[in-house]
Amino acid sequence: MNNRERQDIDRREIRRKRRHRNQVIAYIVLFLFMTFLAAGIVLGVKMYTERQKQSDTQTNQSQVEELFQSEEPLVIVEQSTEVTEPELTPEEKLDEIVDAAIEVMPLEDKVAGLFMVRPESITGVSTAVKAGDGTREALAKHAVGGIVYFAKNIQSAEQLKEMISNTRSYSKYPLFIGIDEEGGSVSRLADKSLVDRVDSAQAISQTLDASNAYQAGTTIGTYMAEYGFDLDFAPVADLTNISKSIMTKRSFGSDAASAIPFVTSMMQGLEEQGITACVKHFPGIGSTVQDTHDGLAVSNRTAEEFRAEEFTVFKAAIDEGANMIMVGHMAAPSLVGDNTPSSMSSVIVTDILREELGFEGVIITDAMDMSAISEYYESDHAAIMALKAGCDMILMPDDYQVAYSGVLQAVKDGVISEERVNDSLRRIYRIKLADKVE
Predict the structure, then answer these.
(1) What confidence tens digit (pLDDT) does each residue in 184-199 have?
(2) Cβ-proximal residues to 13 (8 Å cutoff; 6+ apart), any chain
(3) Nearest to 115 by CA among 139, 138, 146
(4) Which of 150, 273, 314, 355 is the most buried (most CB within 10 A)?
(5) pLDDT value, residue 76
(6) Ramachandran angles phi, psi of 395, nearest 5°
(7) Distance (Å, whole) CA 331 – CA 298
(8) Helices (H) and strands (E) in the chain — how many of each?
């Protein structure tokens, strides 16, 4: 083989290797292209799915907000299908509405919804007498479940109506707007001369005519609704069965059988005017001379006495459809075994009120800024203990921000489950959204 032939062979070998190399490069480029294309498709599908999910969530949130703001009852129309399904009952329809409302709430708002507070607790002002930008910002940050007003918040009829109306309009969720209007000495609106004072429970019971309690409830409910309230911390179901009872003037008497028709009649009068009646103070603080506003109060009643007397009054209210019951801070060692405040005792709240007496409505604590609680417990610990005991709402913690932050962290840590929070919210919203079902 001469040199020329050898050179031709070498050149052919070089071209063959070049073609092979180019083919390898082409395959690599094609592989990389297909890989990037597949990754792009996966990323695109994921982004589309996330965008669609976000859009659906925003749509659901918008629909729920429209439901909250609507003044009209919601009529659920069943879709016609080939298979005939049983029509939902009003109770089932309400459950669907409530579940839809709770489902889109962030955890922070769910926890805030368990609190009912003075307006000053979220606005930071010393005395709230109007609802403006400060209230709007406060409610955006603190989606509390309700606001409680006192005499100091009331200046005039026009001022009160405007303040309540504005407060409601600023909240993204329905609010309880409550006040203490028992009649007698506990009448915030009468204290400011906005209404005529209704007689005390003691005076009404002395007439021996329960229709007077119904009329008292109707009168109070009428003027409360006119101002924009929807929750009254009344009637009192405590029995004054000891000498110098702390509840003497505020109770319908010492005998359960005699007191029952007065309690249920006043409750009925309030409810018929669109006012949620909060029956108080379970298990019955009329059996003590001590005031939980000032410190620890202890009842010496036996468990048998409680069941024979006090419990029968609350049971009668439950059987008549009570939607809310307040648990007091009095200690009942015969029932609990120690001096734990009733509002923090699972025996009182869950074992007796919820299970033994069969109450399915909202259980709210008495004001947690009372000395019976604030002198012995930090605000967060008190709120957590009350919720773990079975209460649904915390009324007026001594320090709302501390209490709220503590409960929120407890839920995040699993000390209180989110489903437990949802259970309380369902009971709360069954009251708040009841008018959305026709």
Answers:
(1) 999 999 999 999 999 9
(2) none
(3) 146
(4) 314
(5) 47
(6) -95, 120
(7) 5
(8) 18, 10
